[in-house]
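does this look right to u?? iron/sulfur cluster version
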Amino acid sequence: MLIEAIDNLRRKRNAIILAHYYQEEAIQDIADFIGDSLELSRKAAQTNAEVIVFCGVHFMAETAKILCPEKTVLIPDLDAGCTLADDCPADEFENFRNKHPDHFVVSYINCTAAVKAQSDLICTSSNAVELIRQLPKDRPILFAPDQNLGKWVQKQSGRELTFWPGSCIVHETFSEEALLKLKLKYPHAEVLAHPECQTNLLELSDFIGSTSKLLKQAELSNAKEFIVLTEPGILHQMRLKMPEKMFVEVPGIDGCSCNACPYMRLNTLEKLLNCLQTMTPQINMDETLRSKALKPIENMLKMSR
Ligand code: 13P
Ligand code: SF4
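got this back:
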């Protein structure tokens, strides 16, 4: 019933449903397109649909609105935030920037429009290394708001970065002890990790990349077992695409289930139907802010393959 109602309304409203890999399985199953942050912004920029229903977190839906101001952008739950974006307030970020006036400012897409508007370039976990490598060698670089991603990018690119001290509550909860136990239990498993994880865990991993890159690596790899160090929502597509392979999620510290993103999981099928029925909640934005935030996103889209 719920699925049928969403399907009918999606057609009636000329809407596209975009979903991130961390959404609950039922939302992934009904989505028109599932992707990582970069792919979702590209899809939003290209769609002919009049309405974008963004099943993800607020900064993702906001990015879609920045790219497509003429479209109606809906998010099933307006409270679906992100600690990285929430812990980098625009006024404090401005002070931080002012302390480093000669720096080129690169911000991870997990930040608010007001922080994007103060940045020279936006990156995602999929293109951060590639973009940083292209920056002029004589300019120092500020990197915000994820210091774990930043440290990994610094190592990969050989460029020294000055970090905003942010981190993701979900990726910070992965336990090294739990990972080591899983590696002992599955000695042939390949460890796939998201770069938002802490350095000690990344050092124990075989492959590091964005959600889409982890999925692609699992398909390309000859391994039959995988330990996956990111939000377990991604395991749904892994299992659907590779039923013959085995995927194991890593629990949080003390075996808690805090490896599931509490913000992503606020979206439900019921709320998805409700937003198509009521056409709320919508993402709206001041035009001056939008046009300032657009420039570094356009720079990213031009510079990444
Ligand atoms: P991806 O761009 O890899 O999908 O990551 C988004 C995110 O929020 C990870 O926590
Ligand atoms: Fe933000 Fe972390 Fe959730 Fe990704 S997993 S949306 S970085 S809180």
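The first helix runs from residue 2 to 12. idk if thats expected tbh
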